[in-house]
């Protein structure tokens, strides 16, 4: 077996998942995902996080191969989510004297998921665990992406063990370090990982970035995706951009439509945006494109125009699902447009407006609602909606 090292005595223990279709049983991962754990072999031996439970056998074998009879002294738990704590019980069973290292919120999760922990070391900001020549400093970064989340900073080699922060979808297909892979391929997967998984916690991510800024970081080892040792600015600048809701001058147009009338309104709006000089216009059918990709584009572009036909006094269910996710994510600083279609007594636009109130994005024009086929006056209102959005963006 190849052994991949971050430093002379620090090992990467990662496993590629190309079988799972949906991460967290929600988010599509067509390019898979990796689960990364790390092993520091010093006077004391420390594991940093574990892996998803389906890899337990390989994981234990790989640890054995490196340690050749030595025991693991510490399991540092940066993050308790089961894709990283999945092997915790197996590790404790194999090394009964192991000390679990976490913060005051960690051990409650250990107990609720696995068992009452026996040997624990509770750490807080700035505490340092001496392993020999390696020293792990801890910093709490709550809600990036769970309440107990923390990072471990290895002071000698200046490695940030970052948990889910700076993680990525996409398996590591041979290349493990950022300078061994083509980042163009990973860009979309890194962004989707951020927006789908961490995106709700942008203010917390900002706090974490500021808190970690004083550290001299030479390498970032996350629990998913590549290890960053060359292009740290590449990923840091992107995380900074995304978590401050910094967007480009584009428009995401989403519609839910059964018979095509709402879609026709979307096409008119999109065409007019283009005539006004907007180059980045992404039009999505909410029934076809998974929310994962649409949310990603909402993080990319400043404007969102959403349309829905009426459906049982509500909006079209697939639009509703998408908007519920967006609302929960608390995405900020967008321009909004609303349109829809009905035949009886409406329901689509009425509920789109509830979404508008909830997200508090700036509504650039009154909602446009047509009854059946698109006619002249509502066609013109669609044009005006697009113009109002273009004015805002180009303003
Ligand atoms: C299952 C179902 C439920 C509907 N519910 C409503 C409704 O509550 N209110 C309404 O005005 N129209 C309702 N309609 C009619 C459609 O919203 C209407 O025909 C609209 O023009 C469809 O737009 P589309 O062409 O974009 O699919 C419903 C249609 C279906 C099939």
From TrEMBL:
Domain Flavodoxin-like: start-end pairs: 251-395
UniProt superkingdom: Bacteria
CDD domains xrefs: flavodiiron_proteins_MBL-fold
Cofactor: FMN
InterPro entries assigned to the protein according to its UniProt record, in alphabetical order: Flavodoxin/NO_synth (IPR008254), Flavodoxin_CS (IPR001226), Flavoprotein-like_sf (IPR029039), Metallo-B-lactamas (IPR001279), ODP_dom (IPR045761), RibonucZ/Hydroxyglut_hydro (IPR036866), Rubredoxin-O_OxRdtase (IPR016440)
GO molecular function: electron transfer activity; FMN binding; metal ion binding; oxidoreductase activity
Family annotation (SMART domains): Lactamase_B
PANTHER family named in the record: ANAEROBIC NITRIC OXIDE REDUCTASE FLAVORUBREDOXIN (PTHR43717)
Family: In the N-terminal section; belongs to the zinc metallo-hydrolase group 3 family.
Stated name of the protein: FprA family A-type flavoprotein
């Amino acid at each position: 077996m190849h052994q991949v090292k971050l430093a002379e005595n620090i090992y990467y223990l990662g496993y590629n998942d190309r079988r799972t279709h949906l991460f967290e049983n929600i988010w599509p991962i067509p390019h898979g995902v990796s689960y990364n754990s790390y092993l520091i072999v010093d006077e004391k031996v420390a594991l940093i996080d574990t892996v998803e439970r389906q890899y337990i056998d390989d994981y234990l074998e790989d640890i054995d191969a490196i340690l050749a009879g030595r025991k693991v002294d510490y399991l540092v738990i940066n993050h308790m989510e089961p894709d990283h704590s999945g092997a915790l019980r197996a590790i404790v069973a194999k090394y009964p004297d192991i000390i679990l290292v976490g913060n005051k919120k960690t051990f409650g999760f250990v107990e609720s998921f696995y068992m009452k922990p026996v040997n624990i070391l509770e750490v807080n900001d700035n505490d340092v665990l001496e392993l020999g020549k390696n020293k792990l400093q801890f910093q709490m970064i709550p809600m990036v992406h769970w309440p107990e989340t923390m990072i471990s900073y290895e002071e000698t080699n200046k490695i940030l063990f970052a948990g889910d922060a700076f993680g990525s979808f996409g398996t590591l297909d041979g290349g493990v370090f950022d300078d061994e892979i083509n980042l163009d391929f990973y860009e979309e997967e890194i962004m989707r990982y951020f927006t789908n998984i961490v995106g709700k916690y942008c203010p917390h991510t900002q706090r974490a970035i500021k808190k970690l800024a004083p550290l001299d970081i030479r390498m970032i080892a996350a629990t998913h995706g590549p290890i960053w040792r060359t292009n740290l600015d590449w990923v840091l600048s992107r995380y900074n951009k995304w978590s401050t809701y910094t967007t480009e001058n584009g428009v995401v147009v989403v519609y839910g439509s059964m018979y095509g009338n709402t879609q026709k309104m979307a096409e008119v709006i999109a065409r007019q945006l283009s005539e006004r000089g907007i180059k980045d216009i992404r039009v999505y059918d909410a029934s076809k494109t998974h929310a994962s990709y649409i949310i990603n584009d909402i993080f990319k572009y400043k404007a969102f125009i959403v349309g829905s036909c009426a459906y049982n006094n509500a909006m079209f269910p697939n639009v509703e699902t998408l908007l519920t996710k967006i609302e929960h994510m608390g995405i900020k600083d967008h321009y909004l447009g609303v349109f829809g279609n009905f035949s009886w007594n409406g329901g689509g636009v009425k509920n789109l407006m509830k979404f508008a109130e909830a997200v508090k994005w700036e509504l650039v024009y009154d909602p446009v609602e047509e009854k059946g086929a698109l006619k002249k006056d509502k066609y013109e209102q669609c044009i005006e909606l697009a113009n109002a959005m273009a004015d805002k963006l180009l303003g």
